[in-house]
Design goal:
Elements (H helix, E strand, L loop, with lengths): L12 H26 L3 H9 L5 H8 L6 E4 L15 E8 L2 E8 L10 H17 L3 E7 L7 H20 L4 E10 L4 H5 L2 E5 L4 E3 L3 H8 L5 H5 L1 H8 L4 E3 L2 H13 L38 H4 L9 E3 L7 E8 L2 E8 L3 E2 L1 H17 L3 E7 L1 E2 L3 H5 L2 H14 L4 E10 H6 L9 E4 L4 E3 L3 H18 L6 H19 L1 H6 L12 H12 L17
Parallel strand pairs: 3-4, 4-5, 5-6, 5-7, 6-8, 11-13, 12-14, 13-15, 15-16, 15-17
Antiparallel strand pairs: 1-2, 2-3, 9-10, 10-11
């Protein structure tokens, strides 16, 4: 039998402590997510509603199929910056008329939906996901354009948004724009470059330059409606393909457009899958509050894969990395999960072979992170840890099957790279509230700086100030600790969201379904030179 046996003691103190620590982190996460949901706050929300308009997430809810899930992406974008959490944009994957779509919606309660640097990063990430997975894009537009105080950080890179729309269309990936209000200046190119454009009577305003700019540039007197109103674009310019009487009608028309796309998944949806044998609620108590304490990732695997059924690959070799085959919501997957944190030479070689096998079989890979990196020390350097680590990173870099990464615990140093961190283009990457990621742990980094400073003082023949050293170490540890936390990293879009561990199976299932809209094909060779 390949059903995983669980040794998790849910009645023990270690489980209780880990669960309590995770619930505390989830409470803090909920408070930050609430900031994104609040948008611009009560004042601007009330003003928006007084104008008879729906909020961004209400528009999405009316667009997607009833009772279907919406996987919101990057909800904490801009966290820790001077901009509103969420970056005045909602992005995610939802099902419209049975078709999985990448949906973006400006939040006009935040500075009129204006785009700041984090809005741009979030929008570009959404386009990247749509392109890789061949998901139709539906843009729910209401934005005054660039946040002018931030224009120096937006204008030049922001052109990529319009480039992406044309490349999506050229690749046969449908793009649809529904304009609910202003779509001015560069924003006018969103409906202009989309395959389909829906505009709303007396609401949509689409022009390169509004009346004040036209007056300044040409001296011409004009008004919003004649210059860029929906009726003008429907009757005169031809920019509007569909003319709606109100927001609900516009969303209805958008749904009909998607229904007529004749857009098909490359792979049919699998039949219903058997749920795990163990309660997903127990995922709350697996990761210790102190990440220095190891845990068995098989306990996680047993609670996310179909039937808790897992065929382990090389179970006796390289035991610090668990590898094996399973299915998740009916989709085949290969899983790589860190066991004891450190990656040695055998683990690296095992990973490289496993990744090659997955590419031979066209099987997506799921990486479950809890690693402090590759092992250091004279013995390991002499045994070739560099070339073995390079072999694993080479395999990850050149693998062609889709990768999904979940940061459960530590994800430090080159181990973050070998386990397919953000720089290695996983199709999706999520973090648990318990995750931490940096070049190394806070204590190790502060200690290295201390050793270097002490050696420098000794080389100069100067006395070393131990009191100042202790203060500096504490300062560095606090800085690295804060910069390692998942909300900090998610705010910079180094992941696609921080998720409740109990939602891991659902989130991965939604991602796998989206991935299988596009062909899933592995590399047949082409891995570069493996240093043996």
């Amino acid at each position: 039998m390949t059903v995983l046996a669980s040794a998790l003691d849910t009645g023990g103190p270690d489980y209780a402590d880990a669960r309590a620590a995770m619930l505390d982190k989830l409470a803090a996460l909920d408070a930050e997510h609430a900031k994104a949901l609040a948008g611009g706050g009560e004042k601007y929300t009330a003003r928006h509603r007084k104008r008879g308009k729906m909020l961004a997430r209400e528009r999405i809810e009316l667009l997607i199929d009833p009772d279907s899930p919406f996987l919101e992406l990057s909800p904490l974008a801009a966290w820790g910056s001077d901009h509103t959490v969420g970056a005045s944009l909602v992005t995610g994957i939802g099902v419209v008329e049975g078709v999985e779509c990448l949906i973006t919606a400006n939040d006009p309660t935040v500075r009129g939906g204006a785009s700041n640097p984090w809005t741009l990063k979030k929008a570009l990430r959404a386009n990247e996901i749509a392109y890789a997975n061949r998901l139709p894009v539906v843009s729910l537009v209401e934005s005054g354009g660039a946040d002018l105080p931030s224009q120096k950080e937006i204008f030049i890179p922001g052109g990529a948004l319009f480039r992406d729309l044309t490349r999506l269309s050229a690749a046969g990936i449908p793009t649809i724009a529904v304009v609910f209000g202003n779509s001015t200046a560069g924003g006018a190119y969103v409906p202009g470059m989309s395959d389909h454009a829906v505009m709303i009577k007396e609401r949509s305003k689409v022009f390169l330059g509004g009346p004040p700019l036209v007056k300044m540039a040409t001296g011409e007197e004009s008004d919003d409606e004649s210059l860029g109103g929906a009726e003008m674009h429907a009757r005169t310019s031809g920019l509007a393909d569909h003319y709606a009487v109100d927001e609900a009608d516009a969303l209805r028309q958008a749904r009909r457009i998607v229904a007529r796309l004749n857009h098909r998944k490359a792979h049919p949806d699998p039949a219903s899958a058997e749920p795990p044998k163990y309660d997903q609620d127990e995922l709350l108590g697996i990761v210790p509050g102190d990440l220095k304490t190891p845990f068995d990732p098989r306990e996680v695997v047993a609670r996310i894969v179909d039937g808790s059924d897992f065929d382990e690959f090389k179970p006796l070799y390289g035991p610090s990395l668990v590898t094996g085959w399973a299915s998740l919501h009916g989709y085949p997957v290969g899983i790589l999960a860190n066991a004891q944190g450190v990656l040695f030479g055998p683990e690296s070689q095992k990973a490289a072979q496993f990744i090659q096998l997955a590419n031979q079989r066209d099987v997506p890979l799921v990486f479950l992170h809890n690693t402090t990196g590759y092992m250091v020390g004279k013995e390991y350097e002499q045994s070739g840890i560099i070339k073995h680590g390079a072999m694993m990173i080479n395999a990850v870099s050149n693998s062609k099957v889709p990768h999904l990464s979940v940061l459960m615990g530590a994800s430090y140093g080159a181990g973050h790279y070998g386990m397919c961190g953000r720089a290695y283009d996983p199709r999706f990457l999520f973090a648990w509230p318990s995750a931490k990621s940096a070049v190394m742990g806070p204590q190790q980094l502060a200690g290295v700086l201390s050793i270097v400073a002490r050696a420098s003082a000794a080389a100069k023949g100067q006395p070393y100030d131990d009191e100042a050293d202790a203060g500096l170490r504490a300062l560095v540890e606090a800085q690295i600790e804060s910069e390692s936390l998942p909300m900090f990293l998610s705010g910079r879009l180094y992941d696609d969201g921080v998720i409740d561990p109990r939602d891991t199976r659902t989130v991965l299932g939604l991602c796998l379904s989206a991935i299988h809209t596009a062909p899933v094909e592995g590399a047949r060779g082409g891995f570069g030179v493996f240093r043996m």
